[in-house]
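During the no-cost extension, the postdoctoral fellow (Dr. R.K.) reprocessed legacy sequence entries with the updated structure-token encoder. One reprocessed record is reproduced below for audit purposes.
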Amino acid sequence: MTKQRGRPRRRQFSEVEREMVRRHYADSRTADLAAALGLSVEQVQRLANALGVHKDVAVIATMARERMADPSHPGRAHWIKPGSAPANKGKRMPPGWSPGRMAETQFKAGCRGNKWVPIGTHRIRDGYLQRKVSDLPKASPSVNWRCVHELVWIEAHGPVPAGHVVVFRPGCRTTHLARITLDTVELVSRSELMARNTIQNLPAPIKAVTRLRAALTRQINKRARTEEGSA
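Re-encoded structure tokens follow.
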């Protein structure tokens, strides 16, 4: 009677081996740990995966640098040597050159992204109604977009003086275009605005909530700027 052939049984790791891998895998070389335990590198890696432990990023970077420093590393043959010239140096492709179907997928002159909107468009950001006033390429959103309540004041009085800002009067803040009128806004100094917005006199629980809300608002604004920059 012949024995049935099947997959070999996997080695069962002891609790000592598990603890060693759990403690030292992150900041040790896998080969060194395998030699200390009498296991193969593959077995240590398999055990680490089962335990959910991973190499520290700094250790990975150090090991990579040391491997590349080895003169026999195969990757060194493909390094760009200092002073070497690019393969396409001095070569100029004729106007309109595009291999294969590249020309079909190239952006045409004057093409705009799908998020582009014309000047005069309104949007709401950070609880304020904004209007697109220019279409300068690669300009920050604060250049191409201005708050409507600020534009209303500027239209009546001219540029905002240095050290001052235009704000809504208390209780008049709105995002409805028709309600943003000259009598709902005012010019205040930045020091006065800071005094209005200070949280130092608020109870401790409200201070904590206010700071958390400010941190959340900063993250939302950061993501919005990133999305606008990619448009």
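The first strand starts at residue 122 and ends at 125. The mean pLDDT is 84. The remaining legacy entries will be reprocessed before the final report is submitted.
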